[in-house]
Design goal:
The protein has 225 residues and is an alpha/beta fold. The chain has 9 helices and 7 strands; from the N terminus they run αβαββαβαββαβαααα. The longest helix is centred in the C-terminal third of the chain and has 26 residues.
């Protein structure tokens, strides 16, 4: 859901709508399947999904609820009706608006970064784009929504659970989602402004903000044994 909110924030920045996007998602576990479900519900066209056994592709859009059910019944998305079989490697290079690697690290690297056709990469996994690939993608004008921002939703909601546990006061799901949306939207805006101010990548902007906040907290608290 945090990834969805990042994509929505980006669409707002570009004067676009999520339902205009085509999306390819690598990984159909807890992250990938839920991102596919949420994007599908928002009207986006999910054209490809994959898991460890392989992937499926339909340029006209995949029936995501059917894919979820097929995965539950068979253990894989492979063989989903109305789709063509593709490999995980081929999925990385598909033509689409957004490519979301949601499983493995280092799936976009120096050897394939020049063949990525998506205009945006949303990092649902940790470290799916290597530093060498980052430089190539930046040169090509492909925007990377970095993992430290795009997949932070789980950590944020874990913090919410800690707060609720301390208070012994528990929130409804809609309230949790609204609070998450506010935090992600604010983080995206601050990262975007930092990117524009320093003319750098979103990843470097996010890291710069994070380091600055740690430095400020350290100064405020003071050093102690």
């Amino acid at each position: 859901r945090g990834s969805l909110y990042c994509i929505q924030a980006l669409a707002g920045k570009r004067g676009q709508r999520v339902d205009e996007y085509t999306v390819a998602i690598q990984g159909f576990g807890n992250v990938g399947s839920n991102l596919a479900r949420l994007l599908h519900a928002e009207g986006a066209k999910v054209v490809a999904v994959s898991d460890s056994r392989g992937g499926v592709y339909n340029p006209h859009g995949i029936d995501v609820p059917a894919a979820v059910e097929h995965k539950r019944e068979t253990g894989s998305v492979v063989g989903l009706a109305g789709t063509d079989a593709i490999t995980n490697e081929e999925l990385v290079e598909l033509p689409c608006d957004i490519f979301a690697p949601c499983a493995l690290e280092q799936v976009v690297h120096a050897e394939n970064a020049d063949r990525v056709q998506a205009s945006v990469i949303c990092e649902g996994a940790n470290g799916p784009v290597t530093p060498a690939a980052d430089a190539i993608l930046e040169d090509r004008g492909i925007l990377v929504l970095p993992d430290v921002l795009a997949n932070a939703g789980g950590v944020v909601v874990s913090y919410f659970e800690w707060v609720q546990g301390l208070q012994e006061y528990f929130w409804h799901e809609d309230e949790v989602n609204a609070k998450l949306r506010d935090i992600v939207a604010r983080a995206f805006e601050e990262t975007w402004q930092t990117r524009e101010r320093f003319q750098t990548s979103l990843r470097m902007a996010a890291y710069g903000l994070a380091v600055r906040r740690v430095a400020e907290a350290t100064t405020t608290r003071g050093l102690y044994p």
